[in-house]
Design brief:
Blueprint (H helix, E strand, L loop, with lengths): L8 H21 L1 H7 L4 H25 L12 H30 L10 H10 L4 H23 L11 H29 L3 H23 L1
Helix pairs in contact: 1-6, 1-8, 2-8, 3-4, 3-6, 3-7, 4-7, 7-8
Length: 222
């Protein structure tokens, strides 16, 4: 009679980590279709990554609410404090996005400025007309997979929270990630406008994907 070795927590976690990282990579590569076949220019790609800020902000709020802990403690925060911090974060991130879009509009809108007059035009022409909703949905699923993986590690396998799981670190990590990411993205967009071809946009998508995976791996090591 043969015996089967029990599956330990670490053995169970590794396949999920591989699946999660694969979903994240594929989600970040979807914009290549927009650049190659859907006629995206630099402004449309930047709008995608601008909207991605809201998606990451959504999952960050859930992370703060469900997974964060107080500094120096392994316990989670109280419901009242996490909801208050989440509300503050929502308002603050919204202001950040508004200022960010103002810069994108002034620097990259170009011909789109004459066609987009309000939020309805933006949704109709950019989000729907340029099929931006497809990569946005993929990115939402990719970020959700990361959150679910971390939640399962904590609640199902009792894996200790990483050192960067305090509320302040989670929120600080969000802003650090967004600022660094978009500085790199805007630099690539300037190059794309100057060269006038899609090649820099392809490089930009690949660079953004590499940064995304690098940040995910760094958080897991934390």
């Amino acid at each position: 009679m043969t015996s089967t070795a029990p599956i330990t927590g670490s053995n169970a976690i590794r396949p999920r980590a591989i699946v999660t990282s694969s979903i994240l990579i594929l989600a970040n590569l979807v914009p290549l279709a927009g650049v190659l076949w859907w006629g995206w220019d630099a402004f449309v790609l930047l709008c995608l990554y601008w909207l991605e800020t809201a998606i990451i902000g959504f999952w960050t709020i859930l992370r703060v609410t469900a997974l964060s802990r107080t500094s120096g403690s392994a316990a989670g925060r109280s419901i009242a404090s996490t909801l208050a911090l989440s509300g503050f974060f929502t308002v603050h991130a919204g202001l950040f996005m508004a200022v960010h879009m103002a810069f994108l509009w002034l620097l990259f809108a170009g011909p789109w400025a004459a066609r987009i007059h309000d939020a309805r035009d933006f949704i109709r022409l950019i989000v729907i007309g340029m099929s931006l909703w497809i990569p946005l949905l993929a990115l939402f699923v990719g970020q959700g997979a990361v959150f679910v993986n971390d939640a399962v590690n904590r609640f199902a396998f009792g894996k200790a929270l990483p050192s960067n799981a305090t509320t302040a670190d989670i929120m600080g990590g969000f802003y650090k990630r967004i600022v660094l990411m978009h500085l790199a993205i805007m630099g690539g967009a300037f190059a794309a406008q100057a060269i006038g071809t899609v090649a820099p946009l392809i490089v930009l998508v690949l660079l953004k994907t590499a940064i995304e995976v690098r940040l995910w791996m760094r958080e897991r090591r934390g």
